[in-house]
Amino acid sequence: MKKFSGAFFSLALTGTNAFLVYFLLGLGMILEGEIFLMVAGSLVQLRILELKWVLAAVFSGALIGDFFWYWIGRRYGAGLIEKYGKYFFLTPRRFLKIEYLITHGGAWLVFASKFLYGFNHAFLAASGAARFNFKKFVIYQIPTTAVWVTIFV
User: Fold this and answer.
1) pLDDT confidence of residue 144
2) CA dist 68 to 27, 51, 75, 122, 129, Å?
3) 81-118: per-residue pLDDT in tens?
4) CA–CA separation, 13 vs 20, rounded Å?
5) If you average pLDDT over residues 127-149, what whole number do you get?
6) What pLDDT is attached to residue 88?
7) Which of 28, 58, 60, 127 qualifies as a cystine partner to 132, CB 3.0-4.6 A?
8) What is the CB neighbour count within 10 angstroms for residue 11?
9) Closest by Cα among 114, 117, 104, 107 to 139
10) What is the mean pLDDT of the chain?
11) SS3 of residue 122 by DSSP
C-alpha cells in the first residue's frame, strides 16, 4: 500500500471513520450514482478505501436507489404523467408507447438504461408507472447493477 504525505492523506480511514465513508457512499448512490461511483473509484485508486467494501457499499446503495425510483414511479407515476406530462412532451399516448417498450423489451432496456447517464432514473420511474413486473425487474436489475458498479469503480 502506498504511503501519502500531507494533511489530506494522513487521515486514517479505519474503524468508524471507514464505516461512515462506506455508508455515505452507499447513501449517495440512492440519488446520484454516477458521481459517487467516480468518487469511490478515485478513493480506491488512491488506496484510501478497500475495493471489496466500496463495491459492497455502492452496489447496495445503487439497488436501493433503483427500487426507490421504481416505487416512486409505481406510486405516483400515472398521476404525475396526467398532471405534468404535457410540460415534458409526454402525452398519455406517448406513455402507452413507452409502456409497451418496457413490458416487451424489459431485460435489454433495464441493461441499456443503466449505462445512459440522465436516463436511468426516468426509466426506473417509468418502469414502475408502467407496472412492469417487480419480480422480473429485480431479476434483471441485480446483474445489471453488478456489471455497472464493477465497470465504473
Assistant:
1) 92
2) 12, 25, 10, 12, 13
3) 777 777 777 777 888 888 888 888 777 888 888 888 87
4) 9
5) 91
6) 72
7) 127
8) 12
9) 107
10) 82
11) helix
CA proximity to 62, closest of 140, 151, 146, 152: 146
Alpha carbon 140 to its chain centroid, in Å, reads: 13
Query: Cell numbers at residue 82, please?
Result: 396526467
Q: 0.85 exceeded by the pTM?
A: no
Contacts of 99 (CB under 8 A, 6+ apart): 126, 129, 130
Find cell 426507490 and name the residue: 68
CA distance 113 to 121: 9
Q: How confident is the model at residue 15 (pLDDT cuts 50, 70, 90)?
A: low
- The residue type of 25 is L
Res 11 pLDDT > 80: no
CB atoms within 10 A of CB 46: 12
The grid cell for 108 is 435489454
Amino acid at position 1, single letter: M
